[in-house]
Amino acid sequence: MLNLLFRYTGKYKKEAIITPFLMLLEVVFDVLIPYVMSKIIDIGIKGSNGADINYVIKMGLIMIGLSVMAMICGALAGRTSAIASSGFVQNIRMAMFTKINRYSFANIEKFEVPSLVTRMTKDMRELRMAYVAIVRQFFRAPFQLLFCAIMIYRINHQLSVVFWIAIPLLALGLFVITYYAHPRFRVLMSKFDEMNSKLEENFIAVRVVKTFVRENFEKLKFKLTSENVMKFQRRAENLVLFDMPLFNLIMYSCMISICWLGGNLIIAQEMTVGEFMSYLSYLKQILFSLMALSNILMQVLFAQASIDRANEVLNEVIDINDDESDPNLEVSNGSIEFKDVSFAYNKNSQKMALSGVNLKIASGETVGIIGSTGSSKTTLVQLIPRLYDATQGEVLVGGYNVKDYSIKHLRKGVAMVLQKNELFTGTIEENLKWGDMNATHEEVVEAAKCAQADDFINSFPEGYNQYLGQGGVNVSGGQKQRLCIARALLRKPKIIILDDSTSAVDTDTDRRIRQALNEKLADMTTIIIAQRISSVMDADKIIVMSDGKIVDVGKHTELMERNDIYADLYYTQMKGVGE
């Protein structure tokens, strides 16, 4: 925790340092108050010459002044600790977000999205509360305990033996609770991940749920998940609940012992009433400082699981990075070559998604890739922009290994329209400018026309300023695909990969998109993954894939003559078209 605190406090170090100093001042003022009170009782009220009202008023005003100063220091400490804790959480959350954005697909899949969301929301709340407890009470409680212990020892050291018995008992009890509670909180956080995963799945697929009238089934599923979270939360917190009863037992045992022993000392005239009253006040402060330390321990215990989970994200080794790249190297042309490439999603897996792939694509060619579902068509093209790295072999772009490029320059030269099309909250033009934030409106319109999106965009009341909801919920699937193609074209890449990205558009629109790409972007290498033969039959070359291997490469007429897989797909899809 302390290591994380020092690393991510950042520019809020001043507030983090001022807070303990203010807490120390508050402790000094608080500790002086019982001492002044004892003087009021012993000198002002029970003095040898009777009550001294002037002395009582004078010392009373000092008590009020000490109380006001303690209140001011406490309020200022609350403000500075709030600033420091908020800044700390903001810094660590930003560090996590930055690290996650550098993750490869494999890293993302390792954690899963719901777990990452939990780590950046609920876990950060626990960290903030622990941070506040540390910068405030972690410094206040020990100083208060120390100063009060000195004062009670000065008043009467005979009574101090009570604390030498009580403190070890409390420490032992807290250690046992902490030791057994931490693993339970780790399990609890994983159950929160599972619950968030169910929520995300349900919210994303809400249309499917309603279509199949499965609301009751989903409610039952969520109820079971929620009850599971409650079960593990009870299991974790039931152990922690022993903290307060243990503290109260020790605190009240101390007070009873002190009252009995102190009363005997007063009767024996070895202790004054004022000293006994201040002793009780210091006793309360000591016990409350012990309770504060106990609360800090429990808060840090709650946060420890969150700390571990945050460190997992921050310390994750990113398997795709720029360590070996040339920062000045840019993609000069759209040539692509695969040299004996094999790939497995799991590094330890014996099953290869791709096996022994050798392929050359010249710059400016239009290449179609076709094959049955699960033939690894998408896996093949994902190696080009380094969404994954080849397990064996080399992938070359523009004559250089993809690892020689920085991620930024490689992906600037290789645009990819993924199978799952994603749009963001904002206007249509803002979404298209993800391809090039500096593009002019005319360039945006040109890209939209090439993707056959201009007509439907202008049909909206606001045109290119039409606001899109999260994920582009207010446009159809085909419209979303065309917007994503336009966004990729706006980047003006050397290579564009269309991964089944026209599946939701009609065949005529699909034909016009391909025609526009051939006419206006003839120098750009185009790779089209498609399920429809009509989408690839005019390509310069067609790659037929099966079971992670390239089984044939050629033009449409050549494949019709020699490749049974391609011919079967053609006749299945095109049967009746001629008729």
Give a written overview of the molecule.
Helices cover 62% and strands 10% of the residues. It is an alpha/beta fold and 579 residues long. Helix 2 runs antiparallel to helix 11 (273-314). The radius of gyration is 35 Å and the shape is elongated.
Question: Which SSEs are present, and which pair or pack?
Answer:
Layout: H1 2-8, H2 13-45, H3 53-102, H4 105-111, H5 113-120, H6 122-155, H7 161-204, H8 206-211, H9 215-240, H10 243-267, H11 273-314, E1 336-343, E2 354-361, E3 366-371, H12 377-382, E4 392-397, E5 400-401, H13 407-413, E6 414-417, E7 426-427, H14 428-432, H15 441-450, H16 454-458, E8 467-468, H17 477-489, E9 495-499, H18 507-520, E10 525-529, E11 541-546, E12 549-554, H19 556-562, H20 564-574
Parallel strand pairs: 3-10, 3-11, 6-9, 9-10
Antiparallel strand pairs: 1-2, 1-4, 4-5, 7-8, 11-12
Helix pairs in contact: 2-3, 2-6, 2-11, 3-6, 5-7, 6-11, 7-9, 7-10, 7-11, 10-11, 15-17, 19-20
